[in-house]
Amino acid sequence: MSSTVGKMTTEEIQYKVLTPTDLNEVTQLMADQFLPRNPLAIFAGETTLEKFGTDLKTYMEKCVKSGVSMGAYTSSGRLVGFRLSYIMTPATEQQEHCTSNSLCFKVLEQMEDGVDLFKQKDVQKILELFAVTVHNDYGGRGIAGNLIKKTIAIAEEKGCQLATTKITNILSGKIYKRLGFQTETTLDLTTIPGLNTSLMPGETMAYYVVGRLPLSV
Question: Looking at the domain that runs over 4-212, which CATH code has it been given?
Answer without folding.
Answer: 3.40.630.30
